[in-house]
Amino acid sequence: MSGSAPQRAPVYGKVALIGLGLIASSLFWAMKRANLVGTVTGYARSQETRDTAREIGLCDEVCDSAAAACEGADLIVLCVPIGAMESVAQEIAPYLKKGATVTDVGSVKRAVIDAVGPHIPEGVHFIPGHPLAGTEHSGPRSGFAELFDNRWCLLVPVENSDAAAIAQLRALWEGVGSNVEEMDAEHHDLVLAVTSHAPHLIAYTMVGVADDLRRVTDSEVIKYSAAGFRDFTRIAASDPTMWRDVFLNNKEATLEILGRFTEELFALQRAIRTGDGDHLFDYFTHTRAIRRGIIEAGQDTDAPNFGRGKKDVK
Amino acid sequence: MSGSAPQRAPVYGKVALIGLGLIASSLFWAMKRANLVGTVTGYARSQETRDTAREIGLCDEVCDSAAAACEGADLIVLCVPIGAMESVAQEIAPYLKKGATVTDVGSVKRAVIDAVGPHIPEGVHFIPGHPLAGTEHSGPRSGFAELFDNRWCLLVPVENSDAAAIAQLRALWEGVGSNVEEMDAEHHDLVLAVTSHAPHLIAYTMVGVADDLRRVTDSEVIKYSAAGFRDFTRIAASDPTMWRDVFLNNKEATLEILGRFTEELFALQRAIRTGDGDHLFDYFTHTRAIRRGIIEAGQDTDAPNFGRGKKDVK
To answer: Which residue intervals define the domain Prephenate/arogenate dehydrogenase in the entry (chains A, B) (predicted)?
Structure first.
C-alpha cells in the first residue's frame, strides 16, 4: 500500500514490563503491532531470560534491574507470578514517576491488591488488571501478538482509582485486541475460580491420575489421548509456578467451587452405579447448551474439524 | 496432474453403515476420499436423518431399513449408540451374507461384544473396533473426511476372529488415515476409562457446576470461558445419548478411575488449604511432562497460538 497510517499520539510514552514470560512478551508484540506506545523497557529476574529477550528483540531495552526498567515509565506492568508481586512492588516503589500507572496481569486480584497496594507511592495510580488469555507455554519465546485478540481483559480498579488513568489503560488493552470490562476484586476471584482455577486443578488431577495408573502405561495414555484426555493435558501443562501461586492466593473461592464439583461428581457417579440413564442424559443435554452459548459469544470456533488444518496434524 | 492413480481392487465391495452420525458420515467421506470401497449403503432409524443423508449425498444409497442396507454387504459397520447395538444386531442377523464382517465403532468393547456377539450367525466374522476420534458435534452433517487422519483405531478381535478378515478391516482403517492396533476388550475399556470416559464425566460435571452457581451468571461463565473452562465445555458438548450409554456400559472401570481421581483431588485440595506450595508445584511440574509426550507422539499440535488463525477467531 502506498499510504501510511495517520499519526496519532501513543497511549503511553514509555512502558515497563516486569517479568518477561508469555503475557509480557505477547503484550510487547501486540503493542508494537498496533503502534500503541513509545518505548518499552523490560526486566526479568533470570539472566537467561534477559539474554533471550535481547536475542529475539523482545523490548526496546532490556534492563538489568526492575528499578532501571521503571525509571521514567508512564505505565508499569507487573507480569510476575502472584507470589513475587509484593517483593517486586517494594523494589520498584522508590523509582516510580509521579502520575505513572502501575498495573498487573495476575490471575487473582484480592491477593495482588493486598500485596502491591500498600507499596504504591502517593501520586502513582494503581489499577490491577487481568487479561483472560494464555496458552500452556511459558517464557519469553512463547509470546505472540494475537494472544489478546477478542479475549477479555478485566480491570479491577481499587478505591480512588483515577478515571482518566483507567480510561488510558483501557485504551491500551483495547488497542492490543481485547474487550475490556471492570469488575470488583471479590467477584473477579469467584468468577475465575469457576472458569479457570477449578478447571485447571481438575485437569492437573486427571492427568496425574492417568500417569499414576500402573495397568495403563504412560505410552498408552499418550497414544490414545485424542479421545478427550488431550485437552486436559494441554491445560495441565501450564506454568507450575504461576498456578501454585494462583491456588495459594485464591484459596477460599477455589475450595468452594471444588467442594461443589465433588458433590455433583458424586451424584453422577451414583447415577452410573445405579444405572440411572435419565439423570445422565438430562445432565449432558443441559451442559451441551452452555457450549452453544460460548460459540455464539465468539469465544471459540465451531469449525467441525477444530480448525485442524493439515499443517497442524504432524 | 495428468496421470491417474493406479487401479486397485477396493478393500470391500459393498459396505453398510448402520447409524449415520459423526463417525459414520466421516467414515463415508474418508472411504470415498481414498477410493477404498465399491458402494456404500446407509441406514438411520430417524426419517429426518435419512432425508438429510440423501440431501447431502451421504452414502451411495440410503435404505429405509437396516436389513435392506445390509443385504449383500461385505462389511457392516454398526455406528449406533452402545445401548442400541443389541437390537440392531438382532434385526440384521438374518440378512448377513456368509463371509461378511460385522464391526462397530462403540467406545466400550466388552459390553458390545456381549450384546452383539450372540447374534452373529455362523460364517460371519465379528471384529469389534473403536476409532479414537471425534468432535463435540453429532449427526449426519457433522462428518468430515479428515477425522481419522493420524488418529488411532483399536481393533478388539474376539475368540476365533479370522486373521484374513482382521487384516482386511485393518486395511480399511489405515486407508482412511488411522493407525491401527489390536487390544483385548478388558484392557481397552480400562484405557478408555482413563483417556476418555472419566475426563468426559469430569468435564460434564465442571460445566454443570459452573452453570449452577447463582453468584456467577451464565453470561459471565460464557464470556470468560477462554480462561480454561472452554476446553471443558467442548468436551461437555458431546452427544448425550452416546455418553449416557458409555457410562452405563463401562461402569466398573469408569467408577474405579473416578475413585482414584477423587482421592488425588482431595490431596491437592488439602495442599491448597494447608498452603503446601511444594506439593502443588511438584505435581504440576510432573503433569507438564506428560503433555510433552503427547506433542512428541504427534497427537496434538504445539503451535503457540493453538493453530488459531484469524479465520477461527470470530
So the answer is: 13-302
